[in-house]
Amino acid sequence: MNGLEQELRALASLVEWPEDADVAPAVAARIAAPPPRRRTSLRLAVALALVLVLLALAVALVVPPARTAILDWLGIGSARIELVDELPALPLTAPIELLGQPTTLADARRRAGFPVSPPPRSEPAPDEIRVVDGRRVSYLWRDGGALRLLVTQVPGLLQRTEVLKKLIPPSVRIERLTIDGDGAVFLAGGPHAVYLLGPSGSFEEDRGWLAGTTLLVDRGGTTLRIEGDLTREQAVGLVRAMT
Amino acid sequence: MHQAIAFRIAFVAAGDRADAEEAVQDGFVKAHRALGRFRDDAPFRPWILRIVANEARNRRRSAGRRAGLAPRAAAAASGDAAPSPEAAALSHERRDALLAALCALDERDREVLVHRFILDLGEEETAAALGVRRGTVKSRTSRALGRMRSALGEERP
């Protein structure tokens, strides 16, 4: 690249952009509303966006799969969210090999290659800490043999690639939240499918699992995922205890 | 998120914040209704950026405004924005000269440089946002850079 191009790129940080609005709720509302009569649908969109965001999102979920690409924009952090009518047949718990090798917190942090938050202070120490070099760090708590709580951290948007994919059927409720300034999505009400980016650099369709209630948080350098039988408040409490 | 780049493209094309926001909303809704015409094998982002940019351009035309970034950038040259280390390495005089040369370009030349270097889009997405072919982006970029060099007195042999 030559000097003038580099100088132009350097100018980018000097441009004062107006703050961009989150248009996703209004768009979802308008998609859910019937298309005719422009003036009415605009007014309806505004009303729905203000008052019935959650309901509108739930209604938007019934659009058939081919029409859901637009709602991919509801993705958060480095997680991609796709809305589907039916879930694929997958196991009900995360295949343990996807979570990597058991290790210590210090070693996991060293091998992660991105900022890793500590386990939540409000919980006992994790039963296991697992790491996949440069890709993800997971904390696992077990209850008997079953996985009770799974906290996974993956690199955030800084890498500009999606490393986590979720397929959301209509039965799942999607709530957008802000937790201390960080964007978050709470998924509850039924199972959804989860895929992690495989070593080949693509999502392996046969190696996902069906997850229950999940909270995703975009912490900038890290996308945090908490899966367990939790209320929204409990999940948010765990996030706040991870500092 | 992807919304942010759609909004900035719309802002450059519309020259106004409220119109940019409406353009993004209308663009997304139109895109959703037009998904049946979207080819599954085509990349999704350039397609939707093209729709959003079209919406924004239509608003600018009906309002009779110029494209939005240049005056903003000139205002930013006063030094209020927090510069990146790369920008900080440019002297104030150099920033002023670059912005003046950028603003003095005709709209087509300025647009292509803003999309390629300020918005940091690739050739394909720039072509989509401007509604031109990729080859046109290449030739316009090269010509616009040449004109900037001339304006800066740095013409290369």
Summarize the structure.
Chain A has helices at about 5-10, 25-30, 40-50, 55-60, 105-110, 230-240; strands at about 80-85, 100, 130, 135-145, 145-155, 165-170, 175-180, 180-190, 190-195, 210, 215-220, 220-230. Chain A has about 240 residues and is of the alpha+beta class. Chain B is built from 9 helices and no strands.
In terms of DSSP E residues, the strand content of chain A is 25-35%
Q: Unreliable stretches of chain A, pLDDT < 50, 5 or more residues?
A: 35-40, 44-73
Widest sheet: strand ordering of chain A? 2-3-4-5-12-11-8-7
- What global shape of chain B is seen? globular
- Tally of separate helices of chain A: 6
Helix content of chain B: over 70%
Number of helices, counting only DSSP H or I runs of 4 residues or more of chain B: 9
The succession of helices and strands of chain A, N to C, reads HHHHEEHEEEEEEEEEEH
Judged by helices, strands and strand pairing, the structural class of chain A is alpha+beta
What sequence of helices (H) and strands (E) makes up the elements of chain B?
HHHHHHHHH
What's the pLDDT, averaged over the residues of chain B? 79
- What general outline of chain A do the C-alpha atoms trace? globular
Rg of chain A, alpha carbons:
20 Å
Structural class of chain B: mainly alpha
